[in-house]
């Protein structure tokens, strides 16, 4: 009888939403108010809201109530996909309401100055704050060497523009690598050479041979929580890369898009080991904070200051001051650190659940031509398969069952691979990886 009442209230709330009484991201009535309206007790409404949250229809804000999520769909007989391809946080992991409060505070604090164009490098106070945050990772840099960009992607674009105006120069990239960086290089007509990224790093002799080539100008790499493989470089390898780069005058372009999830004092960024001038470092706020905020931060060698400012100016005149100011308020208030602790715990739980699914019978997996890499942290799982495994057919079969996976060729890989992204998938849906494993190991 109690279960029937819970189910009834659950469907009553869905009906209200379907009748458009509540709008996207609108706060839903409190448990007390809704209990009174439906003639039930508050505990019953709380259980209904929890079920709606588990089914990804609403998201909860701590001490702020429940809000209608953008992924809500009217219940029907159509397939609802579990999407392991997306690299966008779940809505309940995005602090919309808290950030809105920070934005309102920023508008009051800065008043109408936010409505005018600012410093082309970005808000001075935010750059100063980021410089202090970087010190926690052992990165000591002045605000004059930080540029705020429209996401990491713009930072990559500006660096490529800066370094590869001469078509005779070559960019070294990992294989596989971040697909949009690869597409960008190709679209700009940049000559690209690749080196295989393995679970234990690279063939360092081959890396040195490549660095010796006069045409190799820069090396774009993701040292921590690599996209797409999830691999992270060990500290000795990072030091060796820096040594080689400095010896052969190769510029390093380090994409540290998931820096906030790296374990402190145990897994350092590559720039930590580099005392030279030829190092660009990129960090963003899309994967661990708010995707649409489109704020990235680039550390650049000071010799390029004037040229980069010019390129940024002709590119977009500057990044939104409103978003920058709101982010500054959010960080200063302590809300950002609490948010990072929350998502770090959440993603760790997801990866632990996935690890439990894939860890069994490793030797049997390898004899079947299947290798899974499930890291301790981060958001990606990487699968590699022998030629006999029908990867495309299995992906299509899983799609028909409502499970989406991304095949490895889009990342430049010549092998049969898949990338599994956990970031958008609710934790209870991680269980569906059991079906993925069954089909690939059949």
Describe the structure.
The protein is of the alpha/beta class and 442 residues long. The relative contact order is 0.13. It is built from 15 helices and 15 strands. The longest helix is centred in the C-terminal third of the chain and has 24 residues, at 335-358. The chain folds into three domains: 2-77, Arc Repressor Mutant, subunit A, CATH 1.10.10; 97-333, Aspartate Aminotransferase, domain 2 (3-Layer(aba) Sandwich), CATH 3.40.640.10; 338-440, Alpha-Beta Complex (Aspartate Aminotransferase, domain 1). A seven-stranded mixed sheet has the order 4-10-9-8-7-5-6, with helices on both faces. A four-stranded antiparallel sheet has the order 11-12-15-14. Helix 4 crosses helix 11, helix 6 (151-163) packs parallel to helix 7 (179-187) and helix 6 packs across helix 10 (305-316). It comes from Fusibacter ferrireducens. Keywords: Aminotransferase, DNA-binding, Pyridoxal phosphate, Transcription, Transcription regulation, Transferase. One of its GO terms (molecular function) is transaminase activity. In the C-terminal section; belongs to the class-I pyridoxal-phosphate-dependent aminotransferase family.
């Amino acid at each position: 009888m109690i279960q029937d009442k819970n189910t009834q209230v659950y469907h009553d709330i869905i009906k209200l939403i379907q009748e458009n009484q509540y709008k996207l991201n609108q706060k839903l009535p409190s448990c007390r108010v809704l209990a009174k309206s439906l003639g039930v007790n508050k505990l019953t409404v709380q259980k209904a809201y929890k079920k709606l949250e588990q089914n990804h229809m609403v998201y909860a804000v701590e001490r702020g109530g429940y809000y209608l999520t953008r992924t809500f769909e009217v219940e029907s007989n159509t397939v609802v996909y579990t999407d392991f391809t997306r690299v966008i946080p779940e809505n309940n992991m995005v602090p919309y309401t808290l950030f809105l409060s920070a934005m309102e505070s920023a508008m009051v604090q800065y008043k109408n100055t936010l409505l005018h164009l600012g410093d082309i490098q970005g808000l001075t106070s935010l750059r100063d704050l980021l410089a202090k945050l970087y010190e926690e990772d052992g990165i000591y840099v002045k605000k004059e060497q930080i540029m705020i960009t429209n996401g990491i992607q713009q930072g990559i674009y500006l660096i490529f523009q800066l370094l590869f105006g001469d078509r005779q120069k070559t960019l070294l990239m990992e294989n596989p690598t971040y697909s949009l960086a690869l597409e960008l290089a190709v679209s700009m007509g940049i000559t690209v050479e690749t080196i295989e990224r393995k679970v234990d790093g690279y063939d360092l002799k081959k890396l040195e041979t490549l660095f010796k080539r006069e045409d190799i100008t820069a090396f774009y790499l993701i040292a921590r929580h690599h996209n797409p493989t999830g691999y992270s470089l060990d500290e000795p390898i990072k030091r060796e890369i820096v040594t080689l780069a400095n010896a052969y005058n190769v510029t390093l372009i380090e994409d540290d898009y998931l820096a906030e999830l790296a374990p402190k004092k145990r897994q350092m960024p590559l720039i930590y080991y580099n005392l030279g001038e030829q190092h660009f470092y990129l960090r963003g706020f899309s994967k661990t904070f708010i995707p649409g905020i489109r704020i990235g931060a680039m550390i650049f060698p000071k010799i390029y200051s004037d040229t980069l400012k010019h390129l940024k100016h002709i590119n977009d005149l500057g990044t939104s001051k409103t978003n920058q100011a709101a982010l500054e308020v959010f960080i200063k208030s302590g809300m950002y650190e609490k948010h990072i602790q929350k998502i770090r715990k959440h993603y760790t739980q997801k990866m632990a659940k996935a690890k439990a699914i894939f860890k069994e019978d490793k030797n049997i997996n390898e004899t079947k031509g299947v290798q899974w890499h499930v890291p301790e942290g981060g958001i990606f799982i990487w699968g590699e398969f022998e030629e006999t495994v029908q990867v495309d057919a299995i992906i299509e079969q899983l799609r028909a069952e409502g499970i989406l996976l991304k095949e490895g060729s889009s990342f430049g890989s010549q092998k049969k691979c898949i990338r599994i992204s956990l970031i958008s998938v609710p934790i209870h849906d991680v269980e569906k990886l059991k079906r993925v494993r069954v089909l690939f190991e059949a």
